[in-house]
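Input record (Table S2, row 430):
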Amino acid sequence: MPALIVIGSQWGDEGKGKLIDILSSKADFAVRYQGGANAGHTLKVQGEQIIVHLIPSAVFHPQVKCLISGGVVLDLEGLCEEIQSLKKSGKLENDKQLLISDSATLLLDQHKQLDQAREERAEKAKIGTTGKGIGPAYESRASRRALLFSDLFEEDTVLLRKLKEQFKETQYLLKNFYNKEPIPIDQTFEKIKNYREILKAYRCSNMSLLLYQALKQNKKVLFEGAQGALLDLYHGTYPYVTSSSTLAGGVLSACGLAFSPAPKIMAVAKAYSTRVGAGPFPTECPADSFSGRHLQETGQEFGATTGRRRRCGWLDLPALKYAIRLNGAGSLALMKLDVLTGLKEIKVCVAYQIGSKTVEDFPVQLRDLSKVQPVYKSFKAWEEDLSAVQAKEELSALALDYINFISEEVKIPIEIISVGPSRSQTLYLY
Ligand code: GDP
Ligand code: IMO
Ligand code: MG
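Output record (guanosine-5'-diphosphate complex):
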């Protein structure tokens, strides 16, 4: 198995970080291939918890080379803080463990300012972004004005000139359209040139070639998904999405790889659903209902990046099947099964009612999605604490009913079940 892509199949926060930490024990390379510091991946190892935003979740394994590809938008300040805090706790001791593509896009304070100013102005029509500047940074890239990681290492005069050119319009917009005082470019320049010293050790000039050769030599490469399928720029619940391609297909364009050899693709889903930010969520439970409160509190559903309370609801099978199809996933990891213990009943959405019609396909247009009523199948909940369960056979009969039903419906095997945040709280079904 040379390549494995681990991909979120809901609205993010499925537990990808935990899973990647476990799976990367057998990897040679782990690649963060898209998104930016909007991601927040929580790892819990031997009681120690860390949250990574830009650094790959394989960072606990010193033998794994952690790569950040050209598809990522690099918040330089956040990245340096992350590196320094990891070093303080004894990780990333060897600078050779991390490589950053010279073609990654620089995300600077002006991008964050613009993201936040837009959200503020949008009032009721907010996307609910993380405020980390993701949309504006990808816009810079698409409009061919972005600075790349390699630009950071240009001579001072060149870097300053490029910064001034790139942010001319943004500064104008911030000042004249959003009535904000734009952060002066000289200030940004003085700030980011100090990051060169920390970051120069990690430069990689041709990551696509490096990965091509690694795959050719049968090295084990794990591609780390960030966000989730339903937040994909093209196939998610647009416009309530992020600004990048979050699907497995995004690996190819972000990393400059071709379809061969075919990777193994594992979809990650919670045993229920959550969403942070605005946008349709057909199976959402009211926050003050018994089930809504249970999922939020027992699941500790607070955003790892923004600390926002996550919206919670039931597992949505049409949405999950859609995500599995979009990604070509061959197996599923089902996370946070332990959180369902103690509910009165567990519901699963099996189809949607739109007017008089019942549909099983996830509606791709927001117009249709906003009209759907979920059709639920109800399961009896269990009382047993699952957090110490070590094998499928030890699960209660009711929990087994639930996972067997999901596995039959999605038509791909559930290979991993997670019953707690720690590595040991994991059942391997393959
Ligand atoms: P990611 O963005 O997909 O990596 O997920 P997050 O880290 O944002 O959110 C998942 C949260 O659930 C983290 O706090 C994890 O420590 C936690 N977690 C992961 N797997 C399990 C599990 O099986 N059970 C419980 N109770 N918590 C889990
Ligand atoms: P991980 O990798 C959950 C959501 C935001 C917002 C929308 C757009 O931890 O699963 P953005 O800042 O990207 O422009 O915000 O996308 N979002 C996430 N939600 N987990 C994430 O990442 C997310 N990354 C972005 O909440 O709704
Ligand atoms: Mg997260």
